[in-house]
Amino acid sequence: MTASGQSAGWWRSAAIYQVYLRSFADGNGDGVGDLAGVRARLDYLAELGIDAIWFTPWYPSPMDDGGYDVADFREIDPIFGTLAEAEDLIAAAHAKGIRVIIDIVPNHCSDEHRWFKDALASEPGSPERQRFWFRPGRGPDGSEPPNNWKSRFGGSAWTRVPDGEWYLHLYSSRQPDFNWENQEIRADFEDVLRFWFDRGVDGFRIDVADGLVKDPLLPDVDPGDETPFSDQEGLHEIYRSWRKIADSYPGDRVLVGEMWLPDMSRAARYLRRDELHAAFNFDFLVCPWDFAPFRDVIQRTLAAHEEVGAPAAWVLSNHDVTRHVTRYGREGDTGFAFADRRHGTPVDRGLGTRRARAAALLTMALPGGLYVYQGEELGLWEIEDIPGELRQDPVWARTNGADPGRDGCRVPLPWSGDAPPFGFGTGGAWLPQPGEWRSSTAEAQAAEPASMLRLYRSGLRLRDELPALGAGGLEWLELGDGVLAFTRQPGFTFVLNFSDKPVPLPPHREVLMVSGPVDGELPTDTAVWLLT
C-alpha cells in the first residue's frame, strides 16, 4: 500500500484500449462488429502494447442508444455472440496478458427490460413503479411534466404513460432512469458486479457514474444546472459498497467512473481509497489546442488526484465526442462541447493529424493511466457527411437534426484493402466508411514507418519499458513562451512546441521519439521524448 492507502495496482499506469463493439471488427459477416471479430484481432491489440480492453456494452439491447439501453445485464446480445463466447474471449485476452474491463450502465435500462415492462403493467404507487421515477404530472389535468428537467438527448426528460403518470429519462425516452433510493436496485446491481467478476472480468467502466442519485424532491432547475441529478452525496455510499465487492476478488479488480463534472476537486472525491479507482479526465479531453489550457489542466489534474492518492486517467477521444484529429484541425475553437459540436466547421486534416501525433506522445508521457479510443491509433477523423437517413444516434432524431450526434466517431474501423468495408467484415458495415480511409487501414499503416499506428506501437512499448513513465510525478521545465516541457525521473524529458516558431531542444543524450520531423530544432505542433 502507498502512504495514501491506495494499492499500487496495474491500473495506476495502464494503457487501456476502448473497443466500441459494433464498430471494431465483424466476425460473422452481418455488418456489425462482434466478439468473434475482437478475438480474431487480439494479436493486433497485443502488438499495439495495451494492458487492457474496455468493452462498451455487450448486453441484450434494442440498440436505441448503441447498447447503452440495456435489456438484460447478465447476458450477451445475440448480435455480438454468446455468454460462452464472452467467457472464452476473456480467457483468450488474459492468455495474452490483456485484462478486460466492461461497461456497466446503472443509471438507466432499456424500456424492454423486464422491470420496466412490469412497471408499465402495474398501477401508480406499486412496488414495480418504485424501481423507477414515476410521478403525476403538473397542471389541472396532469398534462405537464413533473418538472422542467431536459433530456441530454434533447426534449423533455419526462414521458407520459397511458394512465397519466410520467417517468424520468435523462437520455432517450427508451432509457428509463432507475430509482436508486430503492434498495432492490442497489442489491441487484451488486449481484451484477459479482456475476461478471465471477466470469473473470477485471473491472467496470461505470456509465453516467455521477448521475445515479437524484434529489428526491425533483426540483425545477435553471438552464445548465444539473445539481439535482448529478454529484449527489448519496453516490459515495453506493461506490463504497461496490469497492468492497471489487476488493473481495483477487487480482486488482477496478472501478472506473465516467463523470462529466465541472469541478475537478469534486470528481476527485470519488477516488478516495474506499471508492472508485479512477475516473476519466474530461477536462483534458475537451481542452483546446493551446499551451496555457493544456498546462493548466495537467497541473490541476495532478494536484487534485494527489490529494486522494489516485492516478489520473488521460483520454483524448471516445465514442461520445468528435475525434480529436478533427477537433485539433478546426478553424477557431479546437476544444469540444456537447452544446455545439461545430459540425461542418472547416478542418485542416493535416494540421489536426500533426497535433494528434503530438498529443499522443503527451498522453503517453504523463503520470497515470491512459485510454486509447479505437481508431485513434490509426489517426482516423470524424466522418461528418453521413446521410441523415443512415444516422442511428438518437441525438440526431431527438434534436431534429440540429445535433449531428455521435455516429461520426463510431464508423467501423478500416483494417485492410482499398475499398469499403476495408476488411471490417464480409458483409459491409453498419455505417458508411469513406473511401479516403484506404491509406489509413491498419494493414497499410503497419507497413509505413512514419504512420500513426507505428507511432502508437513505439510509444506504448517505450512507455512500458522506461522506468520514468507510468505512475509517478513530473517537474515542469520553463523553455519559453508556448513550450510545454517537463522532466520525469530517472532521466526523461518531454517537450511539446505550441508556439508559432521552432525552438531549440534542451540538453539531452538521445532523442527517443518524435511526433514529426526534427532537424536540430523542434517545429511547431511537434512533441519529442528525450533521454537526459
UniProtKB/TrEMBL annotation:
GO BP, one annotated term: oligosaccharide catabolic process
One of this protein's Pfam families, by short name? Alpha-amylase
GO MF term list: alpha-amylase activity
Residue ranges occupied by any Glycosyl hydrolase family 13 catalytic domain in the UniProt entry: 18-406
What is the top-level taxon of the source organism?
Bacteria
Task: Give the similarity note.
Answer: Belongs to the glycosyl hydrolase 13 family.
Q: What is this protein called?
A: Alpha-glucosidase
Source organism per UniProt: Amycolatopsis keratiniphila
> By which gene is this protein encoded?
malZ
